[in-house]
Amino acid sequence: MADVRFPELSKEEPDAEGVLATWFVSDGDQVAGGQLLGEVMVDKASGDVLAPAAGRVRLLVAEEQVARQGTVIATVE
Amino acid sequence: MSTTESATAPAEPALRRLTTARAMAEGIAQEMERDTGIVVLGEDVAKYGGIFGSTTGLLDKFGPQRVIDTPISETAFIGLGVGAAVEGMRPVVELMFADFFGVAMDQIYNHMAKIHFESGGNVRVPMVLMTAAGGGYSDAEQHSQCLWGTFAHLPGMKVVVPSNPADAKGLMISAIRDDNPVVYMFHKGVMGLPWMAKNARSIAPVPEEPYETPIGKAAVAREGGDATVVTVSLSVHHALDVAEQMSAEHGVELEVIDLRSLVPLDREAVLTSVAKTGRLLVVDEDYQSFGLSGEIAATVAETDPGMLRAPVRRVAVPDVPIPYARSLESAVLPTRERIKAAARELVGA
Fold first, then answer.
1. B195 and A29 in contact by Cβ < 8 A?
2. Can you name the CATH fold of B219-347?
3. What is the ipTM for the molecules in this complex?
4. Are A57 and A13 in contact (CB under 8 A)?
5. What is the DSSP letter of B112?
6. CA–CA min distance A13, chain B (Å)
7. pTM of this prediction?
8. Domain A2-76 has CATH 2.40.50.100
9. Which stretches of B260-335 are DSSP H helices?
10. Chain B 7-26, CB below 8 Å of chain A: which residues?
11. Distance between terminal CA atoms of chain B?
12. Has B143 been annotated as catalytic?
């Protein structure tokens, strides 16, 4: 199982909180390694969330929910 | 998906979803891989990736020779695009906001649109001029206009206005491959940008391979027999929302036609639908007078006004500049409330 973490968009502020803007996949979808899973946003900067491996994705954070950089927001089993 | 279904379903990845912005960028990238004569230029298209995400990732893939940040001089870089196109390249030029066309109108209208005709058809201008349109986010009178009626009014340019991710990619590829100048107008509200108002219809499945969406062909976004709503771009999303409400609340089924292109205009699609429903509502986020909504009404009136069982209705922007104040802006935009009120009057619901 591979963890998917909220990407570090703000280097200056490692503890910065952001928002899970969009999931492009649904919970339980089969995904390919490197596939675009979602988009996150810290302030007005946005970043991509990619699948670390192929497998079934489990989404742990809902869209619009606030999360800290580095926290696990999904897993790929 | 339930566990029973997943046990029998093939283990293929689900068709991936994209935002409209990402679908546009993917379309451009796939064409750039195919044809080295395609270059992208405009303000903030390279390092920034396009302020509405239409060119994100292209600089990393294709480098600064083919993805070029320009100075703030629309006349210079649109003229550069026209020259490159005349010489056989296929430039994709971004005008950051449609509202800014004024300073560069000579290049757009007197050169890009006319060279083919002036040369007796001997010189082609295979150029894409893409530009952001539309309001709804308090950006006021110089950053909120649609203006597609203006470009469509002036002969010589094709005009496409996608409403969703799949069409955005297919129309971009068609626009690039077209030998004529194509003005590609994307409403900021359909791009699926995380910092704009959330819009569920701006994120949808998009095929991975390159494909063309035909220019000049409308789509029936929703079938219905009681009235026809002809519209384009973000207003398609609002019209679909209203159609779902009207179906649930009044048992009225609206047919929603997404024109997708203004030039060429798919008049046949409009006539076919109105012949079926006998009622026409045109929804347009552009100014009401002398524009798309009148053209659609005239199309029906010139062909067979007898097919209408009720007078044509229009929901468009009254002829005033787009206000900054949120309350005033929403009063002039074709909101769901205005569309619904007009649709109810049209069908007597």
1. no
2. Rossmann fold (3.40.50)
3. 0.82
4. no
5. I
6. 20
7. 0.93
8. yes
9. 267-277, 292-303, 326-332
10. 11-14, 16-19, 22
11. 38
12. yes
